[in-house]
Amino acid sequence: MTKAQNDVVITGIGIVTCQGVGTEPHIALLKATTAPELKIDTERFAPYPVHPMPEIDWSQQIAKRGDQRQMENWQRLGVFAAGLALDDAGLKDDADACGTMDMIVAAGGGERDINVDSLIVDEGLKRNDREQLLNEKLTTELRPTLFLAQLSNLMAGNISIVHKVTGSSRTFMGEEAAGISAIETAFARIRAGQSTHTLVGGAFVAERPDVILLYEALGAHATGGWTPLWSRDENAGGGIIGGSVGAFLVLESRAHAEGRGARIYASIAEIGGDRGRREDGRLERRLDALVDGLEAKAGSAIVFSGASGMHALADREKTWLDGRFAGVPVRAYGGVTGHALESQFPLGLALAGLALANEAKVPAFDPLSEGTMDGAADTAIVTTIGHARGEGIAILKAEK
Amino acid sequence: MTKAAFRDHLGRPIVAVTGMGVITSLGQGLKDNWAALSGGVSGIHGITRFPVDGLNTRIAGTVDFVELPAENPVERSYFYARETTDEALAQAGLSGHFGGPLFLAAPPIEPEWSARFALADRAPPSQRPGDAYDRFLTVLRDKPDPALHEAWLFGAISERLADRFGTRGLPVTLSTACASGATAIQLGVEAIRQGRTDRALTVGTDGSVTAEALIRFALLSALSTQNDPPQKASKPFTKDRDGFVIAEGAATLVLESLESAVARGARVLGIMKGCGEKADHFHRTRSSPDGGPAIATIRAALEDAGIAEDGIGYINAHGTSTPENDKMEYLSMSTVFGEGLSKIPVSSNKSMIGHTLTAAGAIEAVFSLQTMLTGTLPPTINYQNPDPTIVLDVVPNVKRDKQVSAVLSNSFGFGGQNASLVMTAEPA
């Protein structure tokens, strides 16, 4: 690939999954010779398995206790991962860089107060004037700070407060597609010279009954134990196993990155997203269009698939990948980290960037269905197909 | 026109507005809204949608005159957005597949209480305190409810709009709190300047006035409690202002590169000349005491527009009627415009329509453009007791005839997200 000054390059990666905190444990798993150790909690939300948050020392990225207390885990995890990305890019203590840095966060909503919600519905079972009951209980039981912890745009707000990232602040919503649009928008702005450096990503906490409820309304969450992603047990729920994840990237124009002597993990060559009805091969035709003209060869490319694990969708994606990129090894990272909804796509780019920069021969995550890698890849294809809608693909290139 | 006439001072494509649609508590459609707004009519009234007994705030600018298939914020927000988009596309003379991207500012909507109660009715009895979600899960494991799932997705509104209007690619659903509507427009402007598209659909909608939303803002002491009479509660820039009035509405703007608008013979309603933004790191609900981020936001918008301070003829203020915002907004405007501010009329639409939250930036952009198109400045009503520390020409209480050719519209949000837009009357 010819290098250009407005290439969009990844210079910072902040990543937290059940596999650990920061780039180090993730590089290790990408360079290992066997699939990562399974990190799954089947007890706490039984019958639903979840990939839990690792142990995190919040104060490493959120110095003030007061700031930590103003958030619940969803915002905390995002602010923490954003801090890791800034640190990793060497920009954490650069007030000028952070003060002019753009930011796009892919967000859902924060934790509800499960006890208050329970209290209200239980009381509601005994009363006929439920609307009146709501007024009484919400007025007395809701904590004002919890409202702020629930607000979608306040993950970004807290990143501004804690890390002083204030060039701009935008929050995108809408499940997996939010993460795709966030990176697509950051990419397009940098390409066009509208931004020189952007912090982009999100966080997701799977260990929440209100989140499991979202999936289960569709019968989409897996039950029982963990099974490999490409062969989830069809008789044990809908296939999705959530994972708590924080994933942020620092993206820069090549000119900006080189100007400050930054380390470049990889460049983003192409990125696109689309949506629409999925029946009768429409999904596959849109995926084809997103990688139109791309030649990816076995031996020099790798696919990081963000497949959610939902049964029918996973089958379709695998069939499409095996056809369109025959022989190219596929790694469904959601089987290792859990599905991270809004953060799934940013997580895929983080892993792909780490793999390319470290010339990793990534071990099969699901050895029954994924082939081996003979050598390091110079091209990574990151996919995310939303569990309900929306799909996106990014093509990353190694720096040579 | 020569090619150069379609480029701005930085050589970027000039972005025109060719269609507008609006709905607020004042009515549906630009015509009715403008008649009421320029007539100084308030849309604020007592809440009837849900019981308000025992609540400190019992008023809002809800949109109560539409019929919905189901009563919930998703249906409301979608309905408003659909109606204003129909209106905007009709004005733009566009039909069929829109063929450009959709940028939608929409409220982060959580599951309805009625849905939780319905699940509880079907669920097994409580075994221990705090187990409601376990019981809900039992119900849904037994029998999934895809309609409920869809109602809980943040992407649900843009999905329906994208299907209905044939927009291109992934629609963006965004929230920058009270700046959201302006951010949606900014994203549209950026997409056209990038050359990714000739046109973009930008929408801000908010139909999220529920008991929980009202109570949450009340707990933050953000709302006016001067319930009687409702239409006097929103009184920006006055000494006795005591909070905003929560409200609903939507607006759609069809943005088009000027070149493509002219090429197809569309009527140009105005130019989206510049956008500025700057985030605040001071506090979750309060802005920096020195006004720094708001000042930077306005300056960035002027710079992006290539317009000097003395080029602005009117300011459509954020003007929420909270003690904090109006003070800070004045500080920021007086810092940017200095002595010149005394010559710039500044009015707040929120004195009449309340704070339409997610939709505000888009609605107020439509009214800003309409101000230039009609040569009428809408008033700030309820301006009986001016705050002596805020010295502004607020177009007090009665509209004023004045032709202006460049307008600044401010949107400053909770969570430190600020955006300003500069609009001009014509491409000249």
UniProtKB/TrEMBL annotation, chain A:
Transmembrane segments: none annotated. GO terms for molecular function: 3-oxoacyl-[acyl-carrier-protein] synthase activity. It holds the Pfam family ketoacyl-synt. Residues 6-253 form the Beta-ketoacyl synthase-like N-terminal domain. It comes from the Bacteria. InterPro entries: Beta-ketoacyl_synthase (IPR000794), Ketoacyl_synth_N (IPR014030), Thiolase-like (IPR016039). Keywords: Transferase. GO terms for biological process: fatty acid biosynthetic process. The keyword tRNA processing does not apply. The keyword Membrane does not apply. This is 3-oxoacyl-[acyl-carrier-protein] synthase II. It comes from Rhizobium subbaraonis.
From TrEMBL, chain B:
GO terms for cellular component: cytosol. Pathway: Lipid metabolism; fatty acid biosynthesis. One of its GO terms (molecular function) is 3-oxoacyl-[acyl-carrier-protein] synthase activity. Pfam families: ketoacyl-synt, Ketoacyl-synt_C. Residues 12-425 form the Ketosynthase family 3 (KS3) domain. It comes from the Bacteria. Keywords: Transferase. This is 3-oxoacyl-[acyl-carrier-protein] synthase II. It comes from Rhizobium subbaraonis. The lineage of its organism: Bacteria, Pseudomonadati, Pseudomonadota, Alphaproteobacteria, Hyphomicrobiales.
